[in-house]
Records
---
Amino acid sequence: MKRAKAILPMLVLGLLIAITLARSKNRADVKWSDTLLLMDTVVEIQLWADSDFGFQEASDSLLKKLVSLEDLLDQGRFVVSKSNQANIPDEVKKLIALSDSAYRLSRGFFDPTIGAVTRLWDFSDGATPPHPDSVRNALRLVGMDRFVSGQISDSVVLDFGGIAKGYAADCSVDLLGRLGCTRAMINIGGDLSILGSHKDGRPWHIAIRHPRKPDCFIGYLDVGQCAIATSGDYERYFFHQGKRYHHIIDPRDGMPGSRCQSVTVVANSAWLADAMATALFLMGPHEGSQFVECLDGIEAVFVYAEGESVLVTDGLRGRFTKIDNQ
Amino acid sequence: MTSWDILVVACIATIGIYLLTSNPSSANSVRMVKVASTSGFEKIYKLEGHATVEVEGRLGKSVIEISNGGARFVHSCCPNHLCVKRGWVSKSGDMIACVPNGIIVRIIGKCEYDGITP
């Protein structure tokens, strides 16, 4: 009885400590998520913060930002003509500047002036490739160098499809950081921007979709704070006379690239990961991996054009795990 | 307080924290499918068994089949039918979205991955 009386205060004290610590842990680990359909894709927002963090206000601010970006672009495109070139919105100017950086870095494999060509391609059911003459004519309006130096006198269709989602993911994470959020993951159509470390102290596990088995993953990455983007030939495509035609168009010939099934890029910012995924897809595993080895802060996982083989650049060795889907 | 007492308090506190912060609910480990639309439709279905769900979207009707532990769009009135081409989805955390028609089919449950690209 005496012993029981002695244990009781200890039990109460122990439970009080437990409740206090558990409440403080829960308070700092509240997860909030939302899914939106914006920018012609799915936007997934995941935030972890203290319970007194303004989740709804943060989400509303994000929504406002993303809608304003969506409103500027028409299906990811912006036409620059004589009538509007003096009044290009600041956000579009930023996209042009980032696109120009990506164009130069990628040696022209990423070129936003491809818009005149990409709008010839239709991926609805029963679609066929555009006529070669149309593609040839449209290619005359392609060339970031000539656009930036003002050498193209006609209207230029800028296609930000390969950079805008990543840029939006970066803007979202920046906004959340400014609002005081320390841990978040924004996924805009597969372009991920990750803020902070995982709450369990482990790396973030990011699955990469299998290009030919849509319900499977070809592997997964273990990463910290970073941005990830994938370009694949399975996202928008059609078959014509037994050949796959997809949406990643080579600015050199106006036709879909054929050297990979997909490329996943890890970088410090999502706009760069997004643009480089397009460029590396067109370069292919051999040229692309050599190119990546010369760059700082960019790594990639290539899935070869045939089969399930992957090529992982040096910086991702040990951080990519292949999944056997046999 | 003796060192023995401190040890007892520490043990009780540790067990208490575990019980209070762990989530023993099996809800996360059971996979379900959530069908939602921008028009306000939202319903969760079991993945076992067979069901056909018709959802009215922005453009018209989409038909979703739930069978064999997975779900897929079997019909959609969208122009490019990417949602139908996508086929089955069965892994927790994965989803199929018909963006033009404003419908999302998501597998919910304990997920191995924090994110999926693309």
Note: Chain A touches chain B through 49 residues (CB under 8 Å).
---
Amino acid sequence: MANLMVANVCNLNCPYCFAAIYMKHASPGKKTAFISPETFDHHLDFLERSQIRQARLIGGEPTLHPQLPQLIHQAQQRGFEILLFSHGFIPERVLACLEVLSPDVCTVLINMNAAQTGRAIHEDALARRQAAILRLGAKARLGYNLYQPNFTLDPLLPIIQQTKCQPAIRLGLAQPILAGENAYLPPKLYPLVGQKIARFARRAAAENVTLEFDCGFVRCMFSPADLETLKHTGADVGWRCNPILDISMDGRAIHCFPLTGRVETAVPPHTSAAALRQQLGNQTKAYRTAGIYRECSRCHWKQTGACSGGCLAHTMRRFRHRTLHFRIPVPKLDRVDQV
Amino acid sequence: MHTQQTTLIYTCPDHIYWAKDSAGIVVIDERSQKAHRFTGVETAVWDWLMLGYTDSQVAQFTAVLLDIPLPQAHHHLYHQLQAWQQRGLLALQGGEDG
């Protein structure tokens, strides 16, 4: 798996945005806002030699790219499946391109938080988004990022029923950008959120909708009963944190958005995703001894590898550096040596 | 008569990060990607160092903690610092005449 960034701009301003720091880094100066078809082709080469058959297009907001239909066509011509991450307010020219693709080769993951950006989004726009989901049908899958404890997922169920999109909801935990100041869900609130997810999983299952977990979830945020519920409802749970590989437009491989600027490397010609993943994994392996909680390093699930210990960005935020100037006079030591 | 006293100055390299853990203190060397886990007295001494206590204070605390005479506590501290230096967790800035 590797994500290809195709745009470093977005027309929303979500408080938890993982890519905000990347866009901040990328925007000033001469950097362009959109990937060129030529560079995109090089990135497809990278996927090809890495034997990755899915082109996962991320941003910013990829659908703002004026040549996105061309990029999609390029990827399809080379036999790639498409996974497009979008806020769902999709321009007509892009929608028309996506609409004709088969669900077997294209999925559009729509972030349903987008109505909660702190910025007023007109009712018409929300209606247009729902109409877009309807047009995408089985190609659309809804996603939701949890960044505060007072969320509700219930409004997603009627949208799934009405639009006939995929009967699944992908849940993400908003993680802190190590070098940024985005809104994120503090780990101490995880158990509270875990309860709410399990309760919602039951309601969703009643409508044949399953839940899928993105990275960073931890097993201990759910009670044993809630874990049973998730299992019973067919939720696709995982307690993982790995280098995703976000490939930037300027040719850097980033461990994942939260670690932008801290754990990344240039993508040399002829390298593969496996080699990059290994390299980025080596850059962070020492931190893997710990986890998001103080208790993680003693946890059975962490020690046996059944749980990653949560998001590495959270773990790394627990660590600090101190500038130390500790003076110790030698004569005292000499006296000690004579004792 | 003035007696010159040499002072050693220990610093913490930029690539050293640490965190408290339920099992002790975890110190990460980002350069070598090694994790060091401290337990017991080592945890306390590292913590005192990082809290900014002076050598005299740390020696006093160590003496109380281990129930040993103060000169022996100084000795203990000295050897602990040397051990951390050898593991690359601290660096010696160099001798200084004062």
Note: DSSP finds twelve helices and eleven strands in chain A.
---
Amino acid sequence: MNSPTVFNAALNFAQFWDGRAATLEEQIDGPVTGHVEMAASWPEVEARLAADGSYRDSFSRLYTTGLTAENIKNAIAEFERSLLTPDSRFDRYLRGQDDAITADEKRGYRLFKSYGCVACHQGRNVGGNLFQVLGVMGDYFADHPAENSAGRGRFNVTGLAEDMHRFKVPSLRLAVLTAPYFHNGSAKTLADAIRIMSKYQLGRDIPDDDLRSIIAFLYTLPGHYGGHSLEPVDRDQLSFPAADTGGVR
Amino acid sequence: MKPVMMRLHVLALLVLLLVVLLQFRQVQRFSDSLAHQVHTDLEQLISLDARSEVDMLLLQNHRVSNYDQLTEDLVELGQIDAQLQERLAGMPEITGALQTLKATLVSQTKAAEAFKSDLGILLNSQRYLPVLIGQISAQRPELRVALIRLNRDLFEWLLEPNNQELEQAISRQLNEIRAEGLTRLEHHADVLMHYAPRIREHVDAVAHCGIPESIAMVATGFDHLYDQQLQAHHSKRVWLMIMVMALLAYLATLLYKLSLSMRKIHAANLKLSDLQQQLEQDLQARTEAEQRFRQLFESIPDAVGVHRDGRWLYVNPAAVSMFGARTAADLIGSSVLDRVHADDRDTFTRQLSSYVTGGKRAPLLVQRNLRMDGTVFTGEVRGVPFIEAGEVVVLEVVRDISERIRVENRYSKLVESSSAAIMTFADGHFLSANPATLSMFGVPVQEDFCLLGPVDVSPPLTAGWA
């Protein structure tokens, strides 16, 4: 599994790739009790925190019911709600600062829209507000067999055939910083991810120049956290091997 | 009011107060804000339902920014429904309506979420098809006309989805495309043909899932229930008022009874105060009388003492002096018999016993008494018994008659030795006669002389007396 970033998770309409948690509080259960993660139990967590006087005091001060599993979840969720990365260059551009992004990045934005990426990756989190089947225009899982049940996506939650291989569309705000990509981390770079998306979701080819412009646009999305810009200085994702080209069929 | 009655009244008062408090709690528990909150929730649901439909229409018109809005509206719909379900959890009468509402909201959310997914796919192909047809036409000009016709038919069909003739025509064209090996075009056309009806189904599902009807059902059910609760609440309020009035009336009655009791107590206090005043006056009079008696006892020459169980309790100064004591303390507490001559003690003891046990006043007793230094004096003694604090005490009065006896003895000797006839006479009889008288009248013994009358002695004498 490819763990999604916790930054801007508060802006997602559901949590986890399969959206099994509707809120951040529900999401916290997963990592804490999951066998492959912390493999703990809430009574155990409560006991450990209660052994520390400062935690006891803080929880007693902040919550009328003191240190409880629900309050611990809420405290963590509240912290996660503070992990936002606003004021990106693209945000400033949308607010009217025309020179906030370069001409190439503007071109990337236009391509992002015209190629149809924006059909799923839109809104304040540039994604994170709908579920989508992976493999609309091609059978992704025939070409990339699932290694485990996580590949079934939302089907694991609803049991509905129509939800097979349906995943939460991830946010692209920090995409340039959070490789690898997809639920299984199979795409190591943004170029790989966009090419797979263009093939299996959009059913079209994206020339390398356009791809580079789209990636350049994605570099405008990281905002600020703690007063510091998260935009990387090195734009190594812009360098990628050329794709095989063929005619339109 | 008797204490038992008072306790009963207090108990009854407490019970009544408890009943009033319970009723008050029931009345207070009713909140008319619930109706406002429920209707606000329902109105919000109506508004969000309508807004989500508008969001969907705008999204169909390529307003992708409405994805966020639609997502938020759906989340808010779920939250308000959960809030409403919680508010109305205690009303089993509308559980059915609430479940229906929840089911319609779930259907609507599901359809809307599917709409969001499918629309992205549809719009992508819809947007890409003209581009793709343009690209293929450039590469294969012989297909240009057919492709343009296909493009036109597809978009016409999107506008007229029920046009069967058009649909069949598109199907034929797609078969031709398939034969030409234009896989990508075929895929995108298939997407259009497949997802467009789905989108319409989703829109229909959202538009006709029955949320307004479900909301109306909940509103009607709640209003009916609320009316009933309101009537019950009014009834409870009336009962509360009656109970409060009863409590107040009971309190007033109790206070009236208490005031009556207080008046009685006040009157009794006044009487008691008079009695106390009387008692104080009596005590004062008694104290003054005691002081007068004490002054009397202190000033009289006779010895006065009070003894109990044979021991002196009080002696006056005359007694101190008479018994030759230095102070009263020398006598107080000592035995009464110590001051009685040994030869007279038996007589004294008998007499004391007779008036202590019989309670009678004793006759005057002449007895010999002992002073502190052991010398003897003769006294007339009279004891007066009386009761003090439940016990018999004796007031003893002693008069020293030693001098009188000495004078009497001396007079008697003078009469006996006189040559003159001396006799005593009273009530027509002679009481006594000296030896000279007996000799003079020739009577041998005095007793015989006392039997004589004046006429028996001599006529002149009788004449002289007459």
Note: Chain A has a mean pLDDT of 93.
